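your task:
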Amino acid sequence: MSESPRQALIVYGGWDGHTPQACAELMAERLEGHAIQARLADSLAVLDDDQAMRRVDLIVPIWTMGEISDPQWKALGAAIHNGAGLAGFHGGMVDAFRANTEYQWMTGAQWVAHPGNEHVTYRVEIANSDHPITRGLSGFVLPNTEQYYCHHDPGNTVLCTTKFDQGHGDPSRYHQNVVMPYAWTKSWGAGRVFGAAWGHTVKDFDVPEALEIVIRGMRWACR
């Protein structure tokens, strides 16, 4: 008898500029190709469903900014702490629920700025080639997108980095040529957490390596 597919919950919404629905549909399609059945929800009310939250093996938040209620945060945090995985990317995961610092602690990073460098092209390097998420992959170029300053948990395991080398903006407010963690893993109780800083819009995932690392990260985090 074949095993039942693992269950992923993809919650999408918030600011439309990050193309949440298109990203959610792409991630659901790719996960289902790896025997992870994805449920899409366009409301945070799904987090109030206790039975659904107990069954889920992976949660993918694709929700920019917005607010999460205290009961919804407790349900989300408890699901991950009890063993479900959490995985996501830029506007979907690390620029969500800005007022909730515990959520930011769980994700491992928080977007803070993209000073003076919209619509730029830059490289992402592999920092840890031994991890199953990045093994066998090479660094890659992201074209016509944004490069991010993020605050990071110093306990993260860093998988990818980028050198912040855009010369525009006020250089007294950021460090030129700083090496910024750009994909990482961490734990939250019994749950695994994966994050990537790229993913401004669904177009970032036209780059095969950018999509492959995120899908691998989701599979790695999934219970």
